[in-house]
Amino acid sequence: MDIEEIAQAPHPTGSEENGRVRAYLTGRMAELGLNPSEQAGALSERSVERLARWGDEQAAERQITNLIGVLPGRDRDGPAVLLMAHHDTVWDSPGAADDSTGVAAILEAVRAIQARGPAERDLIVLFTDAEELGLDGMRLFLDEHPLAQRVGMVVNLEARGGGGRASMFETGPGNAQTVRAFTRAMDRVEGGANSNSLAVLVYENMPNGTDYTLARERGIAGVNLAFIGRAHQYHDPASTPEALDRGSVQHIGEKALEAADHFIRADALPAATNNAVYSDLLGLVFIQYAPWVGWLVLAAAAGLLIVAVWRGRKVGAVTFAGMGLGALGGLWLAISGVVLATAMRGLAGPSMSRAGSPELYYAMLRRLPWLEAGVVLSLLAAALILFGSAQGRRRLVAGRLILATIAVLTLYEFSWVILVLGLVAVGGALYSGWMKAARFSAWTGLIALMLVLGVVVQILAPTAAFLIAWPVLGAALAAAVGGLIDPRLERHVSLWPAVIVTAVLGGWLFALGHWTFLGVGMDLPGVLALIAMAAMLARPLAPTSRRGLEILAVLAAVALIAGAGLALGARIIEPVPTEGHAT
């Protein structure tokens, strides 16, 4: 297997092991008829400095060495497809995942493409160097190689971890046609396309990038594929071929094959048009539409909510005052959720900016599963409180929120924002009038709040508005149907719409929250608060009896204590190593 050959040992730019890897890859590319060639160039000053910090005493003398090959198509002059990964690693990791998996997947994809017969256009295979140092290899290719002028589509393979499903997390500008073509290509892969436009928006605003990021900045269309599970293996000595999830290797390989094959055989490559809103729904269906359609989704949700409110008001089950209290409860949940989630992060370890330690960064990657469990449990506790379990326990809830705020300010980092949010959350807990709103009133008020938030996001970031619009539409539909059946929600059958939308959309929110948390949750644990939107779906399912509320109160306390224990225990389970990783 190619990965075993490539990832025998760390092979950073300029090292002897890197030379061995390049020689092996050159031979494999020649076997596949790619007629490989090398492109050499100088490292940037920043990359030289980083290589020197890794202990390379000859860093200033090192050069970039890209490997390039071409699988010819019928049209030798038209736009070509670039299939790429990087062959270098950080100084202390064999890089079985990052990015030996990508390199090996490309070699296998080329073999499979050849077996399918001649294609319409050229397939350029590029194995870049110095990606880990500062994307120098890709920059060299784009600036100086003549083939760069012919690139019309890029398929890039990456990894940030040692497993998980491969997803498309970055595309180029005006991506509607690219996403549509990619989705069609993924019909040949088990599970189909799994991606969403939220990931693209988030990644574009992150400080780091990959080789494809440079191409995207130059307006070149493309798809960036990666898996990010088993985050503890990222840039770690444990990233060995034996530790890899073979299913993940197969998954990203299949996606790379079908995407590249589709593009090289297409009559025309996708053009830049408008950005699309898109997401898969639990891997079952893939939905894509223009951003303006989001207004129709929100309008439909508003119409259904009006039906629910009209039906509820006819029998006195909904009052505007009660809706206001329900909306206040939703605000309290959002604010308290951020405070509690950040408190869990503080218990698990200080912020990166406060610690300034690369050792802590990699330790926190290993702590992510424990931190995620702690955050989820804390949000569950907040949701149970929202459902009325804290009635009569205002001071107890307020005390927990005070402790959470203190944990953030002392263990994580001082933040005026968290201080203000913590004070608001404590004040809301002491008031607690929103806990006493009638069930249908509270539900419709919470939906109305989320509808307003959806409108705001639709205005500011329309490609991410689906995250709120779809759950709001589902909740409004459930409220309308349930209200038409029994506006007092006393008959069990009237609750079944809420059960169904909670199971479907709640599961989708949880899956999306998990994937987002793996990507950015280390210092933004509040992103998991999006799964708290499931409370909007499940609000009418809360018990109304005193016995039921007492049970919820116990569960809320247990969840919060267990979450704090898991987050704090991560410090012991995954301590900061005495010797650091790559910086």
Automatic annotation (TrEMBL):
BP GO terms, sorted: proteolysis
Domain Peptidase M28: 66-258
InterPro entries, alphabetized: ArgE/DapE_CS, M28_fam, Peptidase_M28
Domain of life according to the entry: Bacteria
Pfam family, one: Peptidase_M28
Residue stretches spanning the membrane: 289-310, 322-348, 368-388, 395-412, 418-435, 442-461, 467-486, 493-511, 517-537, 549-573
Keywords attached to this entry: Hydrolase, Membrane, Transmembrane, Transmembrane helix
Example GO molecular function: metalloexopeptidase activity
PANTHER family: METALLOPEPTIDASE M28 FAMILY MEMBER, PEPTIDASE M28 DOMAIN-CONTAINING PROTEIN
Full protein name: Peptidase, M20/M25/M40 family
Species in which this protein is naturally found: Brevundimonas abyssalis TAR-001
